[in-house]
């Protein structure tokens, strides 16, 4: 008869080392070396790093990742979003632009990120305006039928769209300093960034309701960012069920 293993008999697994190895893999997807993050003065150009490949390599297949325009049932459109995370399991992808950008219903958007060369006050504000253009769209919600009955429509306000900024480096000497903190936390709610990453320095997360910032430990910024992003996506659950009757009205 087999006996249960005691805790001291179990094989050890170095979770921190595994995380850092995964970070190396994600950095490789960004076409930069692991040593990049050890050099704060390193110059990086956002056009040279493939954020889409990195995020696609980390997130489950249910999430689409890439450039989009978001639209709503009232005929309104967002700004062009560099990197959006959207539902690809239940939501229809209505259109595609000649440039390859998808036109995605606002109900399907989980997150919107702006990609810039650096993190600084100007780009934090610019990213906030891009995110606000998505958050301002009207989102419908329909009931969902299941084997046991019907789930009622969800409140879109309970699924706030994640906003963020991705960059190769920071122009702030101290990402935790007063200037950076003020720039990140002083935005209006619809323009506020939830997550940000400067590859050479730190990642940050804005936490509600006090609007305080949490920061990655040195040398862990990419995997820290990825984990915080996925935790937020987990909390959001499934995307809103689109009320297609509202979209069909455009045909009348």
Question: Can you offer a commentary on this structure?
Answer:
- By secondary structure, the chain is an alpha/beta fold.
- It has a domain at about 15-60 and about 110-140 and about 155-250.
- Helices cover about 25% and strands about 25% of the residues.
- It contains 6 helices and 11 strands.
- It has helices at about 15-30, 50-60, 120-135, 180-185, 220-235, 245-250; strands at about 65-70, 80-85, 95, 100-105, 110-120, 145, 150, 160-170, 195-200, 205, 210-215.
- The strands form 2 sheets. It has a 9-stranded mixed beta sheet with strand order 3-4-1-2-5-8-9-10-11, with helices on both faces.
- The chain is globular.
Radius of gyration: 20 Å
Order of strands in the sheet with the most strands?
3-4-1-2-5-8-9-10-11
Overall mean pLDDT: 87
Q: State the shape.
A: globular
Biggest sheet details: 9 strands, mixed
Helix and strand pattern: HHEEEEEHEEEHEEEHH
Number of helices: 6
Estimate the strand proportion. Answer: 15-25%
Unreliable stretches (pLDDT < 50, length at least 5) are 39-48
Counting DSSP E segments of at least 2 residues, the number of strands comes to 11
Helix content: 25-40%
